[in-house]
Fold each of these.
Amino acid sequence: MPTTKTERLDIGRSDDVVRVRQLTRTFAVEVGLSLVDQTKIVTAASELARNTLDYGGGGEVTLEVLDQGGRRGLRLTFEDKGPGIADVEQALKDGFTSGKGLGLGLGGAKRLCNEFSIYSKPGEGTKVIVARWK
């Protein structure tokens, strides 16, 4: 799938979560997403960036503007080298948390996006890929 623009950000501090939100909003506007879809992808990006920081010990996000035969979208890939997720299926259930949160982050991010995939292995880290299409 052709990528027309790519940018990578490190996620290592709380300020970086704000930067991820801001850049996601900028890319979403550029893609031409509606205000509702902008809000959905920005909210998902915020949740996933926070998880990357809090549970993965930091990592990075790659933002890509996609063009698939005139169909435009935004893909975000979050990666960390943290402890990983032992039970991904359980982690996607609302109410499950391994920390102090409400347990809505991963499942909520999944519901806010058109595409969602997660790869995680204990001791090796986690990779979450989401996309929102116009």
Amino acid sequence: MTIALYARRKQWPLTGVTIRLRYSRVHATDCAECETKQGLLDRIEREMVLEGDLTAEQRSKALEIADKCPVHRTLKSEIDIRTTLSG
């Protein structure tokens, strides 16, 4: 959605966006760029398909915008979940 809104605002010839996600658990020792070095990590692999006659520069910018998406930023940040039971 973030990419589509950005493309519309910039009047790019984007006709569709498909995002495919694959989830797995990996050993921290298998992730050289990860901060955590012990235990298991959640890994999400993201594949983006951009439809339309976009330039290489527009495609590169779309990838940059995807990383600024609120959902992406939330998943990349430290998450503190606090649950209360009501009723």
Amino acid sequence: MDEQAFKDKTKRLALRVIALVEALPKRIAAQVMGRQLMRCGTSVGANYRAACRSRSTPDMLAKLAIVEEETDETFFWLEQLVDSDTIPRATVAELVAEADEILAMTVASIRTLRSRR
């Protein structure tokens, strides 16, 4: 997948996270988890774009590590929403699959860059 396609993929993830958070129940716990999910789920794309503008391989590795962390945190909050019975697992299944694909591709990119050094 090329850089632009991956940017588009992370942007779609952010938009889907935004839609999910907007649809959450208005209960306090749901809203707190939603805010956390909003922060990390939208951060994935922003940090990937920053990584694309890196000035060096170490800089890119550092920024891709943030993409990896934010994607993993996105998984955490999605799991919390499901495990707390706030939303059904089926509601987030596609979102989880998309985040999993982004995470796998990010980790593969990190490994490739490290092997080149």
